[in-house]
Amino acid sequence: MSGAMVVAGATAAEAGAGASTAGDPAEGAAERTLSELTAAPGVAPWVSARVGIDGDNEAGLTYTGRSVRLDGRHAFSLGKPTLSIGLGASALFASEPGADGSGVQGAGLDVPVLLGFQSDADLYAVWFGPRLGLELLGGEVRLPAADASTATRGPLVDASGRHLALGFVLGVRAGFRHVHVALEATATYHHARGELGGAPVAIDQGTIVPGGGLTVSF
């Protein structure tokens, strides 16, 4: 299980935009929508399976509710620590398809570089390092109403965007034999830019994503 919390955010103003648009309710609705499609605050499931491959390699398949990710990585022994460099490719479901034709999908790539330490008896392990990701999104979304006090739904508009994420991962795992409890937190800076209904919109946000789970190895 994991969840994303927005801890900081700002709008990147488009070139030539006047100061009078800063408080535009429609613009605010577009920014919230872009944030939900990219930074994706909220609670989500996390299910993953991994397999070792000869030559200090590993492959994995992960489902997070928002995406299905296939990745591979190679480990370099540095003595006691191990350096892991990976590459992941994701199919994205940024918003669920609706009966009104709404839905945003996309694809992404990410590169994690992690340094890890593991005890001799595998009682515990610690890992940390940066992760860089890029996503491309497209589809249709229904904007929230500009006036949150009304029950009126916003318009259905075309949506497209590019999302750059730079994060830092810190994780720890502890257990005995084949069963371990793992905890991980990722602090990420998000820059997203795109168009909603033909209007340009951009955001810069920071999130913290805590996660935890039970791992079983065979």
Salient structural properties:
single chain, 218 residues, mainly beta, 11-stranded antiparallel beta sheet, 1 helix, 6% helix
Descriptive overview:
By secondary structure, the protein is mainly β. The chain is built from 1 helix and 11 strands; from the N terminus they run βαββββββββββ. The protein has one domain (2-216). Strands 2-1-11-10-9-8-7-6-5-4-3 form an 11-stranded antiparallel beta sheet, with helices on one face. The protein is elongated, with a radius of gyration of 20 Å. Mean pLDDT is 85; it is low at 11-22. It comes from Sorangium cellulosum (Polyangium cellulosum). This is Outer membrane protein beta-barrel domain-containing protein.
TL;DR?
The protein has 218 residues and is mostly beta strands.
Topology of this protein?
Layout: E1 2-11, H1 25-38, E2 42-44, E3 47-53, E4 57-63, E5 67-77, E6 82-95, E7 103-118, E8 124-142, E9 156-176, E10 179-196, E11 199-216
Antiparallel strand pairs: 1-2, 1-11, 3-4, 4-5, 5-6, 6-7, 7-8, 8-9, 9-10, 10-11
